[in-house]
């Protein structure tokens, strides 16, 4: 391990002394170890939270003017925009996602800092219609020290979404990136410092989820936990958070249906399916992992889909021509293979793919895979988080809606049709936090993002996310009601 760069936690405006235990970060496309980060102990987590609390109470950021928050977040956006190529390279290296995807995704991330900085600057309080000679103001205050637990699939995007909203609202943030891809988030510390964020306002703490993540989420001094991850992780952190009365925003998994109707040109329907299903090798929470295809276009659709999927260019993520990179780990390859096995045992028909693959004998790659199956199958019901897609033939519009909603998940869904009325009718009936019509994966800092059912609760993005990082304070200002209640024989004295 000697010679490998070790990037230690970012705490109080500097890289802390390295922890005794370390986590190796692996490039999943080459299997090379590309660096190490801290495996932070409980004692260190506790000390960081205490220091973060002191930082919040000092008020250097929590009581900063809205105009200052706006200025810092805008500057951070500009700094990040100037350094996108460097972040693209790092993100590709630690996730195995194709460079063309990372370029497109990262180019937009500064917008989250600009949006939430602007929101901080323009957000106004309220005055209620309180009865009588009273002015009641509602103002929003930051919550305190918030913990953010982020995943590996969009490491920089998801962390920035959460950090931007929380900082805009005046909180102190302790973020724990995924142990599988923590490196880009670790670079945000010095970037925010350069933008003028006071030291001790953004703390970046690394380690395994089962240890460092747990130590963080069990701390009673937190004011909020914002998790993006799996349902099992939510269930692991929820009991302690409930006892400590700490609210949780949970962005969890999905099984997004892609509803394809016969008014579509078949070629267009296939392009829609490819886009929905295979971005990030199927490793996004809104991956179009269930293709619900109307029977009237089914046969030509399947024929065309098969030939397009077989032609996808799987390979070295740093090659600009590569369309499908690696998955994140060997465990992920094994999980994809197990899903294929079970799907076939349950009577599924393998249309294409189905096997692990590699580049020059290395890397955690899995072939883009489509399996024709039925609605109750394991593949139709459970999240793969990889490029293994369920294909389902549906007999009618009603059937598509029924199958789409017959899921424990309800995060994203897309409806593809040229029939205007059908688009609205179906979108209205689909149970999902985000429904796209003739699109998929579309995302904007202003657009609330989050699921229903087992896909989570609360929202990222938009006013909803900003306000979820605040608490409402009601101040009641009396300018005409005398405190005469206990005077003798007073008529019409007001109590409430
Ligand atoms: P994960 O739940 O394994 O890990 C997410 C984070 O939680 C990591 O930082 C991990 O270290 C931490 N963690 C794990 N166990 C923990 C514990 N006991 N206590 C505290 N922290 C813990 O998920 P992942 O594999 O990184 O990401 C994949 C999952 O995330 C999928 O289910 C995917 O659908 C979901 N996801 C959801 C969204 C969304 O917006 N809804 C976006 C991306 C990913």
Automatic annotation (TrEMBL):
Pathway: Aromatic compound metabolism; naphthalene degradation. It catalyses: an aldehyde + NAD(+) + H2O = a carboxylate + NADH + 2 H(+). InterPro entries: Ald_DH/histidinol_DH (IPR016161), Ald_DH_C (IPR016163), Ald_DH_CS_GLU (IPR029510), Ald_DH_N (IPR016162), Aldehyde_DH_dom (IPR015590). It is an enzyme of class 1 (oxidoreductase). CDD domains: ALDH_DhaS. The active site is at 251. SUPFAM superfamilies: ALDH-like. It comes from the Eukaryota. It holds the Pfam family Aldedh. This is aldehyde dehydrogenase (NAD(+)). One of its GO terms (molecular function) is aldehyde dehydrogenase (NAD+) activity. Its EC number is 1.2.1.3.
């Amino acid at each position: 391990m000697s010679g490998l760069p070790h990037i230690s936690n970012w705490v109080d405006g500097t890289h802390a002394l390295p922890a005794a235990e370390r986590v190796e970060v692996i490039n999943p496309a080459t299997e090379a170890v590309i660096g190490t980060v801290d495996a932070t102990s409980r004692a260190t987590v506790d000390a960081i939270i205490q220091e973060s609390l002191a930082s919040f109470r000092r008020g250097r950021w929590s009581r900063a003017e809205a105009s200052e928050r706006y200025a810092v977040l805008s500057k951070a956006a500009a700094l990040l925009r100037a350094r996108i190529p460097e972040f693209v390279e790092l993100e590709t290296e630690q996730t195995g996602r194709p460079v063309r995807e990372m370029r497109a995704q990262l180019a937009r991330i500064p917008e989250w800092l600009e949006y939430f900085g602007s929101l901080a600057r323009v957000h106004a309080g309220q005055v209620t219609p309180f009865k009588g000679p009273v002015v009641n103001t509602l103002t929003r205050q930051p919550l305190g020290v918030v913990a953010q637990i982020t995943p590996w699939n969009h490491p920089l995007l998801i962390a920035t979404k959460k950090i931007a909203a929380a900082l805009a609202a005046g909180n102190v943030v302790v973020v724990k990136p995924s142990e599988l891809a923590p490196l880009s988030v670790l670079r945000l510390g010095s970037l925010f410092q350069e933008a003028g964020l006071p030291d001790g306002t953004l703390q970046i703490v690394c380690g395994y989820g089962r240890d460092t993540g747990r130590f963080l989420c069990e701390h009673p001094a937190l004011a909020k936990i914002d998790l993006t991850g799996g349902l099992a992780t939510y269930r692991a952190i929820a009991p302690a958070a409930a006892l400590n009365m700490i609210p949780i925003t949970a962005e969890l998994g999905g099984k997004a249906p892609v509803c394809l109707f016969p008014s579509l040109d078949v070629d267009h329907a296939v392009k829609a399916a490819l886009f929905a299903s295979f971005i990030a090798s199927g490793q996004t929470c809104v991956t179009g992992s269930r293709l619900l295809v109307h029977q009237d276009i089914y046969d030509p659709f399947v024929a065309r889909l098969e030939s397009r999927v077989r032609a996808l260019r799987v390979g070295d993520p740093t090659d600009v021509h590569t369309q499908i990179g690696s998955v994140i780990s060997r465990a992920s390859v094994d999980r994809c293979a197990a899903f294929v096995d079970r799907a076939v045992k349950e009577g599924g028909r393998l249309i294409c793919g189905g096997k692990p693959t590699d580049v020059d004998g290395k890397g955690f790659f899995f072939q883009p895979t489509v399996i024709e199956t039925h609605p109750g199958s394991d593949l139709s019901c459970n999240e793969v988080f990889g490029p293994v897609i369920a294909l389902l033939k549906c007999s009618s519009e009603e059937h598509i809606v029924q199958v789409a909603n017959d899921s424990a998940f309800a995060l994203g869904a897309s409806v593809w049709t040229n029939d205007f009325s059908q688009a609205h009718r179906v979108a209205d009936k689909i149970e999902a936090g985000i429904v796209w019509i003739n699109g998929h994966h579309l995302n904007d800092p202003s657009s609330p993002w989050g699921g229903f059912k087992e896909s989570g609760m609360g929202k990222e993005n938009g006013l909803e996310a900003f306000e979820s990082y605040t608490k409402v304070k009601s101040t009641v200002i009396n300018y005409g009601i005398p405190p005469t209640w206990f005077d003798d024989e007073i008529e019409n004295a007001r109590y409430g």
